[in-house]
Specification:
The chain has a four-stranded antiparallel sheet, with helices on one face. Strand 2 and strand 3 form a beta hairpin. About 15% of the residues are buried. The protein is elongated. Helix content is about 20%, strand content about 50%. The protein has two helices and four strands, in the order E-H-E-E-H-E. It has one domain: Alpha-Beta Plaits, CATH 3.30.70. Pfam families: EF1_GNE. This is Elongation factor 1-beta. Promotes the exchange of GDP for GTP in EF-1-alpha/GDP, thus allowing the regeneration of EF-1-alpha/GTP that could then be used to form the ternary complex EF-1-alpha/GTP/AAtRNA. Keywords: Elongation factor, Protein biosynthesis.
């Protein structure tokens, strides 16, 4: 079974949210079969930055990417999270 790579854009509640702490919270709440491969920040506006996460997860995950979005959206400090890209890894 192959994995997929999800590009997830996480918008914080405010510019006062520490993105490193937010990343740590997200990492600790993900299921063990999910792996964050890379993280970036992207300026949005007026000092507000989004957290861009590259998450590897099993292709046959029940609920697909909805489960990932739900987990992240329920973390304190997250305004909302959305999948902006997905690609299959391996053959």
């Amino acid at each position: 079974m192959a994995d997929v790579l999800i590009v997830l854009k996480v918008f914080p509640d405010s510019d006062e949210v520490n993105l490193d702490n937010l990343y740590a919270d997200i990492s600790s709440k993900l299921p063990k079969e999910y792996k964050i491969i890379r993280k970036e920040t992207e300026p949005i506006a007026f000092g507000l930055n989004a957290l861009i996460l590259y998450v590897q997860m099993p292709e046959q995950t029940e609920g697909g990417t909805d489960n990932l979005e739900e987990i992240v959206n329920n973390i304190q400090g997250v305004s909302h999270a959305e999948v902006v890209g997905i690609t299959r890894l391996g053959f």
